[in-house]
Amino acid sequence: MNESQIDLAHAVALGLIDDEDHHTIQTIIDTEDPTLCTELRRELRTTRATLALLSEITATPPPPSLRTRLLAAIEAEDPPVAS
Q1: What is the domain partition of the chain in residue ranges?
Q2: Residue range 3-74, CATH number
Q3: Do the beta carbons of residue 1 and residue 9 sit within 8 Å?
Q4: How many Å from the N-terminal Cα to the C-terminal Cα in the chain?
Q5: pLDDT tens-digit readout, 9-44
């Protein structure tokens, strides 16, 4: 894989692709050589696994008051009106 394709795989893993990038990825998966397709899928898996690990490591629990504030905000809303 070239650097551009690796960057594209990272963008896919982050969910940051537009229609043009989606078309490029689909072309690689559908028509390119099997080695490139395998490398792309491996890069996607590795990037997604790294992002999952990063989210676990950096996760911060919400402040205890958040539940109370959210419930109060919901209670303060007008109930939906059936149409």
Answers
A1: 3-74
A2: 1.10.10.1320
A3: yes
A4: 55
A5: 888 888 888 888 888 888 888 877 888 888 888 999
Beta-carbon contacts of 47 under 8 Å, excluding residues fewer than 6 positions away, are 9, 10, 13, 14
**Three-class secondary structure of residue 25 per DSSP:** helix
Whole-Å CA distances, 75 to 39, 58, 83: 51, 32, 21
- Structure confidence at residue 54 (pLDDT): 94
Averaged pLDDT of the chain: 87
* pLDDT for residue 50 is more than 80: yes
Contacts of 6 (CB under 8 A, 6+ apart): 43
